[in-house]
Amino acid sequence: MNRRVVITGVGVRAPGGVGRKEFWELLMTVRTATRRISFFDPEPFRSQVAGECDFDPAAEGLTPRQIRRMDRATATPG
Length: 78
Description:
Blueprint: E1 13-14, E2 17-18, H1 20-28, E3 35-36, E4 49-50, H2 64-69
Antiparallel strand pairs: 1-2, 3-4
């Protein structure tokens, strides 16, 4: 079975790097992007380490309304 695939673009927003170049550098230097959880107090939980994405929605140009309506897992307005 043959299937055709078209890649229209590559973008990354991940712990440790925003953008393809930064993320690739993280992978090639074998660095970790995990750290102690900073979004909330992880003290009651067994695991206190995670890979968090640093994202400032206001700096990315989102309006206060868009920010209120978005889930933290959303990276771009939809």
